[in-house]
Write a structure and sequence with these properties.
Helix content: 25-40%
Strand content: 25-35%
Mean pLDDT: 93
CATH superfamily of the largest domain: ATP-grasp fold, B domain
Low-confidence stretches: none
Largest sheet: 11 strands, antiparallel
CATH topology of the largest domain: D-amino Acid Aminotransferase, Chain A, domain 1
Structural class: alpha+beta
Distance between the termini: 49 Å
Radius of gyration: 22 Å
Oligomer: single chain
CATH architecture of the largest domain: 2-Layer Sandwich
Amino acid sequence: MNKNLLSFLSAIDPIFLPSKHQKKIFMAVPKNTPQEKFAQKNFSKNRLISFKINKKEIPDTDKIIKNSNFNKLLKKHQIDSYLLPHRQNSIVGSWAKKNNISLIGPKPKIQKQLENKIYFDKLLKQLKISSPHTLKNETDLKNYPPQKPLVVQESSSYGFFGTKLYAQKSEYFKAIKHKKVNFKNTLIREYVTGPTVGVSLFINQDGRYFCSAPRLQCFIYQNGFPASFTGIQWLKNTDLNDLANKRLNKTLKRLVSLLKQEKFYGLANFDIIISPKKVYVIECNPRLSSATPQIFFQPQLVANLDAWQFLIATFTKEKSTLKNNKLLPKSNYAGALLDFDAEKEIKIKNLPLLGVYEYQKGEIKYLGAEISKLRNGKNKFFLYHDLPGKIKSSDFTVWTIISNFALYHPLTGQLNFAGNEIYRHFKEKVIQ
């Protein structure tokens, strides 16, 4: 049994765990930063592992784990396992093997295959799971109606990164300068209209499983098409009609069979489009996601099951407490997540305080760093960032906001009044 589990604070998932689980984790935090001060308010000091960083840049975990001084600290605390926050790569794999650390996450080969857009699309077609029509070659592309929109994805792209939408075929040809398409590395599909929901599916080595409630994937739109991912809005059981829920459950059962066929165990997140006539599975992200902090924080999102205990037991010798498989639970939780991503270079003028805030009648009040303050009362949200100081950088998430109330309209995915006010407040305060 793994006793000394390591996580980086930047993964944020363990922040939201019940104290009975949280006190068993060692948390790695950058020294003399807002993140360390926050961690000291929420974790036992003897469970914090502080490391030095360059305060002019956002910490890179791949660089940190290669540092000999950091690894000496891990040996001192007898770290024997590590929570994988995202994809496993060769750097993490080699480090874990060298230091005799077991990884809490899916096997890298299976993870890579399922996240590969082309591989997963072929699986969907083989198992006859509803998915958008795929253009497999130049002939399919040539015969595709000129005025119909296209979705183009790099096969190994990460989440929404590497996904491009084109209003019509000519726009795509113009973008690639009329060169031939490399169909071995490019997935081209028809654009299907309808809201996109995400569902998390937990499955262990015995094939037992349960699903989360659905959440709406929210985007910034340009010319009527999603341009960039902004966050998620958890949907109440009544936000989807009975037919949509029935179709989702039927599809999820088939996705369970897909995961079993691939010998996958762990956590897989599926993106699914709900159209008026059917649902379409579009991709699989087999890892922790932006949804998992709230799943760990709000048990009703997974039929009041202990998702963390199940996940850890899946990769260790702990015994799982799950007796019966569960599909979509009934949930009334309407919390949300809002990211602010910097695609272009920006300069930080003020660092927002990490911790819990309250939103009331247009006013935003800081309540303190303790995550426990988020558990009680309404209209509260938690803000986290990895900023070590007033830096200048690009291509990073400036902050993440997790709320216990709605920030988006559940039908459109657009920011509601509260979401817009909170977004503007921090953008004006933080960005120069």
